[in-house]
Amino acid sequence: MLSKRVIPCLDVHDGRTVKGINFVDLIDAGDPVEQAKLYNDLGADEICFLDISATNEGRKTLFDIVSKVAERCFIPLTVGGGIKNNVDINILLKSGADKVSINSAAVFRPSLIKEASDSFGCQCIVLAIDAYKDQSNHKSGYNVSTHGGKTKTDIDALEWAIEGEKNGAGEILLTSMNADGTKLGYDIELTSKISTEVSIPVIASGGAGKPIDMVNVLNKGNASAVLAASIFHFGIYSIENVKKEMLKYRIPVRNTW
Amino acid sequence: MFVLIIDYGSGNIKSVYNSIKRTLHNINKFSEVKVSRNLSEIEKADKIILPGVGSFDQCMNRIRKIKDLVETLKEQVITKKKPFLGICVGMQILADYGYENQKTRGLSWINGDVKPIKNFLNSTQNLKIPHMGWNSLSIYKRNNLFNDITANDQFYFVHSYFFDIKHKKNIICNTQHGINIPAIVNQDNIFGFQFHPEKSGRSGLKILHNWLKLSL
Q1: In this predicted complex, what is the ipTM?
Q2: Which of A69, A92, A246, B165 has a CB 3.0–4.6 Å from the CB of A97, allowing a cystine?
Q3: Top-level CATH class of A5-248?
Q4: Are B196 and B135 in contact (CB under 8 A)?
């Protein structure tokens, strides 16, 4: 039986790992290569890098980091942030990324997902959706935002997810902008709405505060994987803590201890 | 030992290279691993790996585009019986036909066709496609490939199509995702892994180690 995945996410800014509380206050939490190796050894099922560098120099250090991580970690590596076209994707895959996650650029140019999927295969194209609650939205109740949540659009999150699947995304990384940084739990309603309507896997993201939050979004939100950053970085809970909690609720996990 | 990874323009060759390099180092430090599409290198190789990411038709087309590659592989693998490992789509193209995007003839080294998983699932199962993530193996034929591999070991899969094997004797082990999916297939010196050993952590490195040692 397929295990539910636990994925630590490292936000990388100019070659250093950071985690923003609601994407604003950045706290330095270390060296991304060392951290990735550590997570690999501690039982992460995948590692996700989100590059939040604003400059080209910052982005170049990312390729170097990805290739160093790929030499030492033999688990899937997803890289996102600032990907605009097939050229960017090609460099990342060649550096050693297994999947790339595409967010804002797909909103501005929806054909990007299709182009990327046709060229590199759907298995490596992750559609990242940053969704926020909007009371004037009478479809799913959630709209899509871009630029790390700074820019709101009136695109319905559910319709966007369905379109992404049609265009060839192999997976959806779904972040609740309302829950992100709160540590009050994932947005189960959002995750469930999207996951039941698409046939590709959905990774739940945003709001993890404790292991039971993961259990809830996997069980009630029908997520295939959970992503979290700060609770792992600051050693509040380990990946093993999370997996053991999942096992208690009979959720299949990859046993790594 | 000289291990050759065939470079035909498919995705994550670097990961396969890194994992083989790491594994070989523990077996014999005088071993060598190379990524190449040079036919004379393939002729020199002791073991040949065909990685694969992407679709069946794309993969076959790329291989056929490299002049004399199929003939050279046949000579080395079928006639000379060199140990061969196909990974993911690199395993699927061993089949007679693949049905991804369009019907495409494969290498026909192991009988069977590559079909969409979703056609075999019933809607109540509510399973996600692609079959993406870590899954365990049900082992039918214990052999040295599974040295040090236990029920706790899981392997990383990512695929929407599966190898519907014609003769059961070619299935070494299955994995389950709604249906039984051949995870390791074999015919004589030819092995195929549906999962990505290069992305399967310690378990993946162990099975690569075992494969590399099989015919030493």
Answers
A1: 0.93
A2: A92
A3: alpha beta
A4: no
